[in-house]
Structure formats: structure tokens, C-alpha cells
Amino acid sequence: MKATVNIYASKGQLTQKLLDVVRGNHKACVMTNSRTQAIALGIAVKKAYPDKRAVVIHAENAQQPNIQRMLKNISMTFEHDIDVLIASPSLGTGIDISFQDRAGNPRMVVPYVFGIFSGNVTTHFDCDQQLCRVRHPAEIHVYIDARTFQYECDPSAIRAELDHVVGRDLELVGFDDDGRPNYGDDNELIALWSVVKAVERASINELALNFLELRRKNGDIVNFVPDDEDANSAGGVSLRAATQQRIEEQAKNIANAKDIDHERRRDLQRQMDNGYAVADEDVHAMKKYDLAHSYAVETVTEQLVIDDKDGGRRRQLSILEVMLLSELVAKGKEISRMFRDAAAQSEVQRAHNRDPSTKSKLLFGVPAFDLTLYPVIRELLRSLLEAAGLFDGVKNIFVSDIAVTQASLSEFISVAKHRAADLELVFGLALRADCDEKRVGQLNEILNLVGLRVYPNQISDAGGKKVRGYSFNVKTLQETHQILERREKQQIERRNAVDRATNARDTGVNSEQTKQFLAIVARWKEKARVAAAVKAVVTVPSELQPVSQVEASSPFSPDAVNATDVKLIPSAMGASQLK
């Protein structure tokens, strides 16, 4: 059966169409590839029509008992208890929303299906799969991001990117790399990964065009809806207001959530990872704990939650810290990551990965495409920003007293083009097609990786032509510097607490336990065959721990690795980095 897919040029116009459908008492299903977009659309519908039964499903509530009950019999529930269903990719493959009469013939219960899809998130295949959850709708209305990208999408070239970056990473870490990396038994896995990555990139490069072509090949009719400025304006106002309400409600919920400790946070995460439901108030408490820990603050305010931008600011700070690490510490963190991940594997697999006949032992069981690449991240960002004149690699500080111009960024653009493949692989960032013409824009896209940007602050006259200069906002640098200082202080306090706990525990070990400890360490060293690296991460093995302490002090637990990292960081990410 052919379907007509109506394509909209703006989210606002599509949002208004959705609201019109709801006002007309029609059932509708809305699919989007963004959790925050799904929540905002739900708010917009409920705000406009409070009497309508709107249900929003996303990653954070998909395991709730009421949602799970609904999904077990989604068709019947939708027909009798739901007016509007809005879902992120959490409601994807495996969910069938179809309706039949008593004779088994399809019947239409949900006449309207909507899709709102942002670019550089999912592939056009994923978008299509989401829309197909509802069978036999009368109308399909879609907004799909028409932006294009320039990601490399040749599998052999992507494999070469990985070879280059991982080879450089291993070399920087200090392993002997004699040319092209040999991944041992992972070669077939790497080849498959390269093909999958190529398909994903090709889809994302032209998401809208690929989606339309797929629909046409499936026999559907594509109809481009004429622009309606009034509808676009009205829908845009509703969507923006709903988005702002989502942000404010989230900030209030998190800031007012109960305080929990590390153990409770860990238990809740385990519960979520195992597919069990976690109450909304516990999710808010987890987020509050994460914010307090990441920003090293006693009180989590609503403004802090808003400024965090759903974790985006924290990701930027983490990348910034890696960039500011000393080379030694970056190597140490990469080694720690390899060991931590190796511990999660079975003993057989670990022994296989350490087989001297293959070089897979270099990766210690971590797939090459899943390395953290700390040394590469550090070197890549520093080289780019040094070329722009905004970072002093010797002093390890950002330069705030100069203004860059379109002309002064020629070397930066040259380095960016040369490292384009690295940027794609490490950060998923493709260079702009107009990077030569808009050099400052390209610079800000890279600075955004670490939460910074340059702003216009002066205009000079060169030969009768106005030249605009751009520089850092000093206040932003100072605020970022203060956050890093607090994080460093917190890490030192945490390290000291771990040391005190370790000393207290060691003091209580009796002679028999000491013998057991020495025997276990001897066996462990023999199996690992990497005694020097083991010394950097090993603590008292779990065999000697009380049950309640095993998680906290396992040699491969995140806490143990963090403690090791801190010992390698005397002042690497502290007070002198930002001025």
C-alpha cells in the first residue's frame, strides 16, 4: 500500500500541524531521534490541550512499570487509553503498533504519524524504522534535517584513519609499534566496523535526501508541503515555550532532589543497567549527585543544571582536562583504561588477548575503535589551537590577550584540513565545507569541544577595509579555571581518602591473609605478564575484601582507576592552565 509522506521545511510548521490534529480529536503518533525533543513536544501538546491523554517514552522512563505494561499490549492501550504517543528511539525495532478487525484485516486506528528528525544523530534507516512502528496510517508528516556533512565514507579510508590514530596512540603510550597496527584476531571485527561506520556516515552526510530516496524506492509518494509563515510562527512559539518549560522543570526537579551518596548512586546505576525500573525521583537524585561531583560543589542550583545543558558542559570539561594533561598523565590514563576494560572480560578471553603470538595484547582486550585515545585527543587539540595562536603549549595556558582575524587563521585552517580525518574519527566532527571562507566559524566549532569560543571584540581599519578581531571572553576563561581548580582539589581529597582507607585496611591484615595476598599477587602477575603496568593499578585483590568493599577497591573498578589517575596528576589540570 502506497503512502504519502508530507515533508515540511520547518519544525514550527510541523508542530502546528500536530497541534491542529490533536485539536481535531484524532489520534497521532510522533517519532523523534531526540529525548529532549520528545519531552518538549509532550509538554507542548499537554499545555495546549490538557484534557488529551499524551504519553512520552524516552530512555529515562522506558523501564518504568507503567510504560512496560503499556508496551506489552501497545495496540490495545493506544486504541483505548492514548490520544498522542510521542517517542524517542527508545521505542524502536521490535515494537509493532498495528490493528486488525475480527477477520484479521488491517484497520486504521492511528491516522496520523509524525516524524521530527535532527541531523548528525541517527541514520535515515533509523528514522524510517521509527516511522514504521505504526502500520497503515492515513497520513505521514515529517520534518527531517536537510543539512549536509562531509564525513569520509569509504571503508578502506576509514580503516586507514583508525590505523593512523590508534598507531599514534600506541606510540604515544609507549608501546612498540612497527608500522601499521596489527589487531591480531580483531582484524575481521575492525573490517566490519569500518563498513558499518561507512554506511552510517554516508547516511548522515545527506540525511534528508537519503530518506526521501528510500521512501520513493519503497513506492511511497513524497509531497513537499508549501511554507506557511503563520503556521511556522505559531508552532515555533509553542515549541520554544515547551522547550524552555522542559529545561526549567528539569532544573527544578534536579536541584530539589534528595541527596544520595556514592554507594546509592552506584546501586541505582546497576539497577538501570540491568533493565530494572528506577523512579523519577531517583533519576533526579542521580543527576544531582553527578552534577555535584562533576562541578565539585556542595549545592546544586537550578542555574547550574541549566548551564550544564543536559551534560554537554560536563563532556566539554572532560575533553578540556584531557587537553591540559601532561603527556605522561595522558599516557597513564590510557593504560589505566586498557586494564580496567580488560578486567571485565572472561579469563579465557583475557588469556587469549595476551597471547604473545599476536599484537592484540597491546590493546588488552579493548577493541581498537573503543580506545579512549587520551594522548591523541591531547595532541590533536593542542596542535590546532596552537596553530590558531590561542594556546601556549609550553606554559600550558590559553592566550587571552590576542585577537584572531580571518587572515591570521590561515595556518589553523591548514592544520585543520591536514587533521580532518583525525577530527572525524576522534570527535565525530567534520570540517565545514566553507571553512576557508568562514575560518572563525570553524575555529569556534573546534573550541566548542572544550566549552569555549571567541567573540568579536574589535574592529580595525586596514587600508580602508574593516578587519574584525575575535578573542576569548576573559570571564568565561576565569569561570572554567575555577571549575578545574575545584575538580583538582576534589580529586586530591578523594585520593587522600583512598590512601587512608587502604592504609587502615592493610594494618588489619593478619599473617595468614598476608600469605594469601602474596600468593594471589604472584599468580596474578604471572597471568598478566605486564608486571610494570600492574604496579600502577593494583590494590588489594577482591579475594581479601569484605563483600561491601569489593566494588570500591577492585583494581579495575572506576574508583581504583581514578585514584591511580590522581596519583599521576600532581598539578596537571590545576590552577595554572587558564589565565
Describe the structure.
The chain has 579 residues and is α/β, with parallel strands linked by helices. The chain has four domains: 4-148 and 206-243, P-loop containing nucleotide triphosphate hydrolases (Rossmann fold, 3-Layer(aba) Sandwich); 155-195 and 320-475, no CATH class; 256-310, no CATH class; 477-567, no CATH class. Helices cover 54% and strands 9% of the residues. It has 24 helices and eleven strands. The strands form three sheets. A seven-stranded parallel beta sheet has the order 3-4-2-5-6-1-7, sandwiched between helices. Strands 8-9 form a two-stranded antiparallel ribbon. The chain has a two-stranded antiparallel sheet with strand order 10-11. A hairpin with a 2-residue loop joins strand 10 and strand 11 (465-472). The N and C termini lie far apart (64 Å).
Secondary-structure class: alpha/beta
**Could you give the distance between the termini?**
64 Å
Shape designation? globular
Mean pLDDT across all residues, rounded? Answer: 81
Order of strands, main sheet, comes to 3-4-2-5-6-1-7
Q: What value does the Rg take, in angstroms?
A: 27 Å
Low-confidence stretches: 170-179, 339-365, 530-579
Largest sheet: 7 strands, parallel
Tell me the domain tally: 4
What is the helix fraction of residues, given as a range?
40-55%
- Helix tally? 24
Task: Tell me the fraction of residues in β-strands, as a range.
Answer: 5-15%
Q: Would you count the extended β strands for me?
A: 11
